[in-house]
Design a protein that fits this description.
2 domains, 6 strands, about 10% strand, globular
Length: about 240
């Protein structure tokens, strides 16, 4: 992890009373994530942030993308989990869960590496006591496979006209311009916590008519999202 970027973002969020969700890899073995040397106090710092209301999400186990499987969302062609058996996935998730607990961190929220996981992942998560997934292409939180999904559909700082938008920020990739854009966005917009997102999910389950209207809006949003994603990949392929 780029610790300099982490400190900048941490201080920025604290100064604006923003309590985000942190994706924590229990036992990172992905060399691409090893930007800075290991810091002895990192687990203590994460415990402190959790005590201050920051939400911890279990981000896989080792972050090794060895499976060639796009999973449920089709956002990536590789995965740490999708394609593996239920038994294997449950064992891996349980191992990561135990590691986080050994460091004093508790999490009932799952964040899959590369946004790739499948129905076996969801079943294993549910059986291990997880209740939430931070992922999915939708305008609003929803229930699927017995889990509450808080959608994650943005990778840059911009507003959606309606719905709940979650922005994925990779600290290792943040340059000065990205950090400045992030600061301006936070200063200009209301950022809710992951806990507030879960509370919104509970509220949105009420009312069949409203649910039907959101489903229609979500369908249109997904069509636009995946169409643009295919166009982007096609254009990227031409420029390579």
């Amino acid at each position: 992890m780029n610790y300099t970027s982490f400190c900048y973002v941490r201080d920025l969020l604290v100064s604006h009373n923003v309590q985000p969700i942190l994706a924590v890899v229990p036992d990172n073995r992905d060399r691409a994530l090893m930007v800075d040397r290991y810091r002895d106090g990192v687990w203590e710092e994460l415990r402190q942030l959790q005590s201050e209301g920051w939400h911890i999400g279990q981000h896989g186990l080792h972050h090794l993308l060895l499976q060639n499987d796009a999973g449920l969302l089709k956002l990536s062609e590789v995965s740490e989990f999708a394609g593996l058996s239920y038994e294997r996935q449950r064992l891996m998730i349980s191992e990561g869960q135990a590691l986080l607990q050994s460091h004093g961190l508790s999490s009932k929220t799952w964040i899959a590496p590369a946004h790739s996981f499948d129905e076996n992942t969801c079943k294993a998560l549910r059986d291990l006591g997880f209740t939430n997934i931070s992922d999915g292409i939708s305008l609003f939180p929803f229930m699927r496979f017995g889990l509450t999904w808080i959608p994650q559909q943005l990778w840059s700082f911009r507003k959606l006209p309606i719905g709940l938008a979650t922005i994925c920020v990779h600290l290792n990739h943040l340059g000065l311009q990205h950090l400045q854009t992030m600061q301006k966005f936070i200063q200009a917009n209301k950022i809710i916590s992951f806990r507030e997102g879960l509370e919104m999910a509970q509220t949105l389950r009420l009312g069949a008519a409203a649910q039907a209207g959101r489903a229609a809006g979500d369908l249109a949003f997904k069509c636009v999202f995946y169409t643009r994603m295919r166009q982007h990949r096609k254009a990227k392929g031409r420029s390579a």
